[in-house]
Amino acid sequence: MLAGSLIAVLVKKIFIGRKWMNKKLLMVFVVCSVSFFCHFLLDAIPHKDYAIKSEFLFLSSVYLLIDMMIGSCIILFVFREPLMHFLRVVVSVNVSKIEVADNLKLASPFFLASLGVFFNILPDVFMVLKRILGMDFYILSQLEIFHNAMHSNIFPDLFWGWASQISFSFMVVVLLVRLVFKVENKIYSWLAVEEAERILSEVSQDREIEK
Ligand SMILES: [Zn+2]
């Protein structure tokens, strides 16, 4: 989850200020595909994993739920400013179309990060569909073969398993938290910088005209 949201941040950084055709579509495509394949690279790094044997299924689900809650809290905190713009669209009534469009633009880093998160955990969702729910499609079997080939041995040693995951997560969180910027004393995730600056300059131009 953390890696997916960081990929969204880094891809957006590459795309900022560039005038490519279909930039947004291309950006979404890059975030989704890089996040998806990043999952296999991360699986190749030895780590502590969830046991998917049937006798551990309940315990694994509990661990998974706790991990996903911690991950979600971190991501919601880092992307709180774009998230607020999205919530403003959801809860507000009687707002102009322009206001809705501007808020959605400022919320775009949150959407992009959500896509990164979704596509980064998708290979494991496929694994659950195949192994636990017994779905058997050709593409799922092929993906499982690739997934297993890429996967490192699950660290039997608790300490090193946790150590590799905690140090990786810490590194990603530090990177995410550092990548923020301020506009009019409000902290935005910096990937909204392009949109935020444009909207703020338009607002100040409007104020000038009103004067
Ligand atoms: Zn995996």
Secondary structure layout plus pairing:
Blueprint: H1 2-15, H2 23-44, H3 57-78, H4 80-91, H5 97-131, H6 138-150, H7 158-178, E1 180-183, E2 186-189, H8 193-210
Short characterization:
The chain crosses the membrane at residues 25-45, 57-79, 106-129, 159-181. With 211 residues, the protein is mainly alpha-helical.
Structure description:
This protein has helices at 2-15, 23-44, 57-78, 80-91, 97-131, 138-150, 158-178, 193-210, and strands spanning 180-183, 186-189. The radius of gyration is 20 Å and the shape is elongated. With 211 residues, the chain is mainly alpha-helical. The model has no long low-confidence stretch (mean pLDDT 82). It has one domain (2-210). It has a two-stranded antiparallel sheet. The protein is built from 8 helices and 2 strands; from the N terminus they run αααααααββα. The structure holds zinc ion (ZN). Zinc ion binds next to helix 2 and helix 5. The site of zinc ion has 5 residues, from helix 2 and helix 5.
What level of helicity do the residues show? Answer: over 70%
Number of helices: 8
Number of strands: 2
Total individual domains: 1
Q: Order of strands across the biggest sheet?
A: 1-2
Class by alpha and beta content: mainly alpha
Distinct ligand kinds: zinc ion
Largest sheet: 2 strands, antiparallel
By oligomeric state, this entry counts as single chain
Task: Quote the beta fraction.
Answer: under 5%
What value does the Rg take, in angstroms?
A: 20 Å
Shape call: elongated
Low-pLDDT sequence parts: none
- N-end to C-end Cα span: 47 Å
Give the rounded overall mean pLDDT. Answer: 82
Order of helices and strands: HHHHHHHEEH
Keywords: Membrane, Transmembrane, Transmembrane helix
